[in-house]
Amino acid sequence: MRPFHRREFLTLAGLAATAVSCGTASGRAGVPASTIRYQGWAGVVTPAELAEDLGYLDGLTLKWVGNTTSGPQDIQSAAAGDTDFGGAFNGAVVRMAAAKAPVKAVISYYGVDKKRFSGFYVRADSPVRTARDLLGKKVAMNTLGGHSEAMLDTYLKREGLGTGELGQVERIALPPVNTEQALRQGRIEVAVLSDILRDKALEHGGIRALFDDHRLLGTFSAGTYVMSDRYLDQHPRAARAFITGVGRALDWSRRTPREEVVERMVRIVRRRDRSEDTEPLRYWRSYGVPEAGGRIVPRELSMWSRWLEQRGDIKPGRVRISDMYTNEFNRSPARPARPDRPARGREGAAERAYARARDGAPVRARHSSGS
């Protein structure tokens, strides 16, 4: 899912004021309680769409109202009542909470694991091998102020760079489809690549990973669906059915062979007949959500709150993590441990690194000389 641009990020405060003054969920006039309005992504099957196809929504029907342009735009639509849920990077959700928008995060829907991650890649012959080597270099990512920039800042700090040195690493926004070419042509020194674009670039050869967000922080959820407070108050049964169904679909995608998941996604896209390319689905590996049923873990919001405070984007103490999310409506089955993560009480290196990142302690990332 696309992280948000800094300019998009700054529109959330204005959206919050609009949502408060006009009231949310106002656009539901004439819409049956059993209908959930949403925005999609071209060529993508979201967890919500998968849940509907699996029959997990307990009688609810999804109504597609168009495709979104970004995570922030998607959650803005939910806050304004134009849709009934929206999803975005957790940093955008924290920012919206800081703007006092009347919404709550209700379930995680994408994340980072050993199958789904973003890597920071250099050319194989590049002299860049450490964080300090990045001073004065260009790092290209799809947007600024979002997930990738947060990962870059975290990596640089872990490797001992001071706050004043972070600005010496140039961050550039490039369309993902152009990033690999820019790297190979030498226009940039580092390219952030993920999903199909990462896999195709690795197939082409000649690049190596400097680090990736999974090596940096382990497995974690990175984005959540939000619903307006008014919708949750007025339609608790529908909210419960929807959130629980999405959680069940996430669990199904983890325990089902990848080939079967991909084939179902291809059928879904072909059936909805929106002139979409199904080839990217062949590279799908995981939604990356580790918690049972997509339940939200507080630290997966607090880490972004801390980052935004350090950047000066929100004031310290502006948000209370416990107020911005709820697992109350999620009735999907629980399980004792997370996949790709050790059980609580027997934490491994990735989990310890994640905990230290949350607390702002300096921890060194693991490096890779290859992919």
Automatic annotation (TrEMBL):
Residues 337-361 have a biased composition (Basic and acidic residues). Residues 326-371 are annotated as: Disordered. It comes from the Bacteria. Gene3D superfamilies: Periplasmic binding protein-like II. SUPFAM superfamilies: Periplasmic binding protein-like II. Residues 50-259 form the SsuA/THI5-like domain. Pfam families: NMT1 (PF09084). This is ABC transporter substrate-binding protein. It comes from Streptomyces axinellae.
